[in-house]
């Protein structure tokens, strides 16, 4: 008979067994109710998605579980055998459940009173990983059995083993043997040797506990256990096992989890989500995302920007200041080739999401609209002070960045030198809405056109915007210039494929013609001047390039947006706190610095691209112009430039200030009745003629008749020997006239004119002296005649109040000695000073008013005769930024 104590132990054991059996029966009953059907057994593991650059290089992997599926035949046989040997030696013999293994594990669990040993087959582990949880309960264990049975019914052993090896977690975020092989050994699983296969197989038992990084001794011991088991089961020989045991673990150092081009990657993810892709698709769907990024250019962008930003300070959020952004786009297709949204750990993408004031980088939109509305690059606009009324009653007075005024200058010069006043005047003349429309068509979407605070004001010309613009949109807008007037929308993704190579999304290039190609080329040529001799000289890269600087008045934003035929890039620099200026270590950083960053990037990004020039479209002509007047230049003009015009917009009249010089171009014939008289005096009768090409006709002179020799366009040849010369078209003298001293033809009223005695043969040369009287029907002439460098003649001026007609310049030159001009009346001089001259000035141009100037645009100004400086109403000399104008209004005199 059993002792009393043993009886109670036996009763307790039987009771515990009954409870466990009851629990098991209940668990089986519950499991039967939720048993899976064959249709339920579908493996859909989370797979890593890949993002590639434009050359097929991997930018990053997207995953919740870092898994890269491979086929079983791509896995070494040693790896397959190692897994089977250590995890499930009877894998190829059972049907999903190994009863001996289960009974052994059950006995161990019963003795301990809890689940200690699994005893699970590879099929059961796959069922748990794919369809169940990791909880340690009897119900989960029984469910695992039913799922394993169904898996074995539906799939072959090789299919089960392949799925298991692609599903299993092997530590450090790696799921599946391919991801683990790349992580630990830096190579594909197909290239693993025996020792490496054994190490991976050993990790399946406990990836963290056996980590070769944290616990290399444990990992080594476990690997050798796997090798011993493989030898025991006959998968390898003792010699192979011994050799493999001598191998070191050979794992590579863990690489920091750093994403390449992180700002671009985030932008692509947002873009794909906008196209309907879910997070599940992107991080678990095994997609292949082919982007437009060029990793070489991306590296150049990061290096050029981040290494160039000055050392500043860390703000309250720990973000280093100042910040910057760079975006590069291929203008031919809109591909975003590089994107840097900042530096440091900040994930705020300033290339896309930061809207900042662009400063003068907005001016090209104004000038592009102006060239499409009557302006040319040679148009003259007066850079002089101006003010505009505002709703507050306080006038707005735009000023130039250097607080200097240049007087009348060409549009090209105004753009190259970033002259604010001229940009504002041009914008006023074409209308703000016109310029805004052009900016919007070219890709700027953030302009505000309604509401109390909006961008429909003249400060638009200077980049004073309600919201601002992003570097991405600025780069996109400038593609219009680089691609001959065609705006192309920026594209970050070319296509997306699923795990089987099926195309799920294909992008299309979106192009729109928003400028005619002639205007685009003129703007490009002017923006080349910004780099070659203007405010953007730091951006010179040794190949054709164009661009524009931009700095805000308070120096909080600095820009450079530039392009070649192959690439457009926008660079921005500023502080995240927008009211903080770019002043560091006593240095104020502006657009000259961003131009330098742009140059560094472009030089590196285009290092392997042969230089190419911008394509010049048809219907453009080049003419030499006087940059002071915008008229056709003569040999006497001191400042001449070969300017480009759309055919039909080029000037046709010679420079009215330096008209005595020989023409540098061959314009169309011009009626010159009423044009200024020749400076050598002499009587002149009425008549008509042309300045160039053929002699004037219809007039007579008081000297001998005109010679019979033909005149060249420059008036170089005169008449026959001994005879007066023929009319010298366009010049007051003939260089090789007759020997009698008879004079040259006048362009004054189209008639010929005889010189007085004492002049050299052929008329008055620049150093000669004339004695004739002023033409009776010509325009005013000062005090008789005067050669350009000689002494005045003794004739009297003609009446300035009776020109034969308005002529091409509206009126005659001013007669300073009388204090009057064609549009002027008599006024009392300020301060009662007698040394002043009164002049009527057109406000639109800052030049001498003509009869064509609107009366409300004409004002009286007084200047000192000797110095030519303007005098105030109190008779004191102003700060010398205004001097006596010497030419007629080029806006109303054309």
Which SSEs are present, and which pair or pack?
Elements: H1 4-33, E1 49-52, E2 58-62, E3 66-67, H2 77-87, H3 99-112, H4 122-131, H5 138-154, H6 157-167, E4 174-175, H7 177-185, H8 194-203, H9 216-232, H10 238-245, H11 262-274, H12 279-284, E5 288-291, H13 295-306, E6 313-314, E7 320-321, E8 323-329, E9 336-340, H14 363-371, E10 380-383, E11 407-410, H15 411-416, H16 420-430, H17 432-441, H18 471-482, E12 486-488, E13 493-497, E14 503-506, E15 511-513, H19 517-533, E16 546-551, E17 557-563, E18 568-574, E19 583-584, E20 587-588, H20 591-605, E21 620-626, E22 640-646, E23 836-842, E24 858-864, E25 870-871
Parallel strand pairs: 1-5, 3-4
Antiparallel strand pairs: 1-2, 5-13, 6-7, 8-9, 8-18, 10-11, 12-15, 13-14, 16-17, 17-18, 19-20, 21-22, 23-24, 24-25
Helix pairs in contact: 1-5, 2-8, 2-9, 4-5, 4-6, 8-9, 9-10, 13-20, 14-16, 14-17, 14-19
